């Protein structure tokens, strides 16, 4: 009976054994098979080298950025003009200071403790050397204006150092285009101080703002302003 089985792998039609394609006549891997294996390994080697380079570069970047950060002094709470600094007013914070920015290093806290504030600053503000010492209010190009606010026209948390937007809530100086301020007119300012009036529930708030708009704010009648607190460190 004639067999219908197909020749086995490595055997020819006569049943004689023959080497498979990846083996040479001696039974060892052929050169072409070795080259093929090397070609398969090459992309993996390149990928491995790139991964190592990426990891090393990331480590160097992280180390460099960390070393550039230095501990400096910041305010732990709002401090008004003239306030004498105590340890509880300060905290240390690590920052990457830009060249030319004058800050007080954390290890020089003794140089500012016991000295009065030269201006009013809010919590979280980085302390600078010129913020401590003789009062510098108003600074060149700035002015201090006092406004009267009634209950509901300013947050009860308002304190010296707060950044605020002063908003006109009603038409002022009706019929006078020279001095009148339309509702919605606003200015950015920093609170210098808050003094409650003993005779009623109103308060007098001293505001530090740009000298060019101080006269406009000063002409707004009492009771026609609202103070909106802004994030600490916001632009004036």
Automatic annotation (TrEMBL):
It comes from the Bacteria. Keywords: Membrane, Transmembrane, Transmembrane helix. InterPro entries: SAF. The chain crosses the membrane at residues 42-62. Residues 25-35 have a biased composition (Low complexity). Residues 70-133 form the SAF domain. SMART domains: SAF (SM00858). CDD domains: SAF_CpaB_FlgA_like. Residues 1-35 are annotated as: Disordered. It holds the Pfam family SAF. The keyword Transmembrane helix applies. This is SAF domain-containing protein. It comes from Amycolatopsis umgeniensis. The lineage of its organism: Bacteria, Bacillati, Actinomycetota, Actinomycetes, Pseudonocardiales.
């Amino acid at each position: 009976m004639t067999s219908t089985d197909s020749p086995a792998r490595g055997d020819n039609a006569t049943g004689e054994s023959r080497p498979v394609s990846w083996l040479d006549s001696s039974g060892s891997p052929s050169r072409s098979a070795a080259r093929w294996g090397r070609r398969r390994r090459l992309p993996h080697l390149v990928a491995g080298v790139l991964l190592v380079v990426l990891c090393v570069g990331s480590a160097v970047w992280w180390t460099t950025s960390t070393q550039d950060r230095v501990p400096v002094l910041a305010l732990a709470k709002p401090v008004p003009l003239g306030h004498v600094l105590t340890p509880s007013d300060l905290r240390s914070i690590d920052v990457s200071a830009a060249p030319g920015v004058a800050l007080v290093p954390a290890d020089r806290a003794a140089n500012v403790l016991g000295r009065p504030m030269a201006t009013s600053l809010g919590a979280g503000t980085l302390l600078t050397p010129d913020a401590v010492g003789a009062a510098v209010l108003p600074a060149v190009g700035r002015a201090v204006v006092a406004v009267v606010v009634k209950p509901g026209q300013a947050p009860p948390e308002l304190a010296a150092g707060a950044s605020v937007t002063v908003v006109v809530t009603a038409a002022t100086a009706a019929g006078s285009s020279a001095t009148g301020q339309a509702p919605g007119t606003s200015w950015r300012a920093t609170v210098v101080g808050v003094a409650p009036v003993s005779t009623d529930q109103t308060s007098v708030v001293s505001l530090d703002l740009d000298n060019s708009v101080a006269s406009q704010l000063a002409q707004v009648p009492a009771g026609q302003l609202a103070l909106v607190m802004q994030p600490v460190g916001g632009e004036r």
